[in-house]
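>> received
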Amino acid sequence: MVYCDTSSEILEWSSEEKSIPYRSPSDGKIHRYYPDFLIKRKELDGAIKKYMIEIKPKKQTLPPPKPKRQTQKYLNEVFTYAKNQSKWEAAREWCADNGYIFQVLTEKELNIRR
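>> returned
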């Protein structure tokens, strides 16, 4: 948020303001997803682009490796991964229809050391 407030390239931004419906893989019902940020940015070439940004740990963006035995921890990681994929697919569709670019940023892109 500090970056958004202090960067001259950021023209507008909001946090968790947009609600996107998605179907949960666990219960098949429609739920609401609130992406972390909507940003309007002036690019280096002068073009103005709109982004929908989700921030997640890198671990949640990858399918969990299958262990020798299925623990509750593994099942929770599988559920989280599947739920995130459903949310992000709905977000990509909304962005395509509304002129936004969808991005998931992790600690790698944000240069956060863990």
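>> The chain has two helices and six strands.
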